[in-house]
Amino acid sequence: MSYSNVIDYGNFPECLSIDYEDQDGRIIGKFCGLSVIFVNIFLTPETKEILTSFNLDVNEPSVQTVPQQFNATISMDTFLKMDKQLRDVLIEDVPYVLSKYSMCVPNACTPREVSYFFLYGHLDQFSLIIFTDLPCETKESNTDFEWGDIVFIIFLVLIVLAMILSTIYDALCQNFKTEPYHPLLLSFSILYNGKKLLHISNNTTEQIQCFNGMRFISMMWVVAFHAVSVFQVGAVGLENYPEVVEWDSSWTSRYILSGLLAVDTFFFISGFLLAFSYLKTATKQGPVDQILKVPKMYLHRYLRLTPPVAAMYLVTITIFRFLGSGPTWTLISDLFKTTCKKQWWKFFLYIQNYTDPDNMCVNPMWYLSADMQMFILAPLVLIPTAMFIKKRFLHVIGGLIGLTVLCIICPMLIRYFVDEAAGNIYTSHERFTNFVIGITFGAFMRMKKEKPFIFS
């Protein structure tokens, strides 16, 4: 513990494998996790002081006072708000440290009994301990199906059945060299859709080949960042935590820890492709025709994005908890499920990155929310651009550059005057600069394609 190795979940599979039965009854292993805050007895801070340091209200229902050493018992939803600095025991004058342990007990024990046994039996010499209960789990946990799970599983079975029947029909049509009765009958065919997915089109002037490399590099960057962030937030134990802290502050870590910027690549590409494709036909249309086309653009965008997003949502609130196992899996899956059920309407309106960024359903979906919001604002830029770019090209490009500068200044002013957290990376106005830069380059490349520039 003195080396910041404060996480020990024990042997999760071994605990769950315990299953003993005799004439007195049956005992199966129950794995219970514990998150314990050890308080420095030399600093002896007050409970209210600790809770206040994390912006927690000691009078809220989730914080309960209990007798003797235990000044507070904090529920998991409140506990998750706490700062990760609890883990670092090497910081001077820090009055507490967060440790995570586990106990393997008979299945008859309740989480509350486990907590009190742990505290009274081993840690009664400490002046103050704040603890929170984590879900306990046995091998029979997560075996009960709710009605929502059953309905979604039936839906998946029907989809698989449709794929099988459609593929068989497609194979028969190809074998007998006959045309399908209706194209819809091939909609779920693996053969038909597989050919379309695996088809590589010839290089055309409408394709920007370098974007494929940009996407790949950025995706690997995002994966690397998230792989490292799992260790930084204290989700898993580390034997060399001090070395990790030292590495975090070194220049060699910048290429991974700056992974928050990797998403900007996709906003740039999104803005570029939108402008590049929009200006292909919009420059030949009047402003009224363009404005009348906007609702259709919005509807097409929503209908194209929402089906896979809805599938992800349904998986999260139904069968997601059956897809994994581990010391904290039940906690994570239940948290996802509860949050998504509560935030469903914000999720499908693509506004949760603004309404409640700290409690989003499927956190990575913030990108789609921001991208949708930028798409909705895009006609305000694209329509004037399409109207004047052919006649006043330099003026339009200059205006787009000015808009880019404005998009840089506005978030800075908002942070300064509104006191918005600088770390709020989910809002569209924080990322809109990259989208506008993409629009600028997209407009430039479209005009360059139609009328190549000659530099003398």
Quick structural overview:
The chain has helices at 12-16, 47-53, 76-79, 111-122, 147-175, 190-198, 210-232, 241-248, 254-257, 263-282, 287-317, 329-342, 344-348, 352-355, 366-377, 379-388, 393-418, 428-450, and strands at residues 19-22, 25-39, 63-64, 73-74, 96-106, 129-137. The protein starts with 11 loop residues before the first helix and ends in a 6-residue tail after the last helix.
Outline the fold blueprint.
Layout: H1 12-16, E1 19-22, E2 25-39, H2 47-53, E3 63-64, E4 73-74, H3 76-79, E5 96-106, H4 111-122, E6 129-137, H5 147-175, H6 190-198, H7 210-232, H8 241-248, H9 254-257, H10 263-282, H11 287-317, H12 329-342, H13 344-348, H14 352-355, H15 366-377, H16 379-388, H17 393-418, H18 428-450
Antiparallel strand pairs: 1-2, 2-5, 2-6, 3-4
Helix pairs in contact: 7-10, 10-16, 10-18, 11-15, 11-16, 15-18, 17-18
Pfam family, one: NRF
Protein name: Nose resistant to fluoxetine protein 6-like
GO molecular function: acyltransferase activity, transferring groups other than amino-acyl groups
Structure description:
There is one protein chain. The chain has 3 domains: 12-137, no CATH class; 147-198, no CATH class; 213-450, no CATH class. Helices cover 54% and strands 9% of the residues. It has helices at 12-16, 47-53, 76-79, 111-122, 147-175, 190-198, 210-232, 241-248, 254-257, 263-282, 287-317, 329-342, 344-348, 352-355, 366-377, 379-388, 393-418, 428-450; strands at residues 19-22, 25-39, 63-64, 73-74, 96-106, 129-137. The strands form 2 sheets. Strands 1, 2, 5 and 6 form a 4-stranded antiparallel β-sheet that branches. Helix 17 packs antiparallel against helix 18. The termini are far apart. This is Nose resistant to fluoxetine protein 6-like. Pfam families: Acyl_transf_3, NRF.
